[in-house]
Automatic annotation (TrEMBL):
Lineage: Bacteria, Pseudomonadati, Pseudomonadota, Gammaproteobacteria, Thiotrichales
Name recorded for this polypeptide: tRNA nucleotidyltransferase
Presence of the UniProt keyword Transferase in the record: yes
Keyword vocabulary terms for this entry: Transferase
Keyword Magnesium: no
Amino acid sequence: MKDYLLDLLLDLDGIEQDPYYHPEGDALFHSLQVFQLAHQQSDCPTMWAAALFHDVGKANGSKSHDAVGAEMLQGVLNDQIVWLVEHHLDLLIASAQTKRKLRKQPTQLKQLEQLRHWDVSGRDPTAEVISPQQAIALLDPFFTQTVA
């Protein structure tokens, strides 16, 4: 499982993103930044994992990288992480509708808002990031808790 997850991350290396929205460069560099923000600002391994893997679907080249990424993680990580990956763009695409839909699920909404914040903040072209292997190692103690 860890090898599979590492491969998903490594597949993001060199995947260029629109420089207007992502001046930081490729999808791997962005994902590692988002992970580090989550790791620094939260003590929740579920959120760390969602931050690290939120863009894995971009390696596929599909426009719907959120749904593709969730599908790639289904059965590997728990349903909460998969849900966060699948819905990480909802607040961008339909903010008011998403907030209405999740008003009776305040924890999910808060997690989605936090992930969105980190996603937007992880766009510094000069950031120092850890390696994908180091990120996986930080999650390692929690993999038994995060598997489906």
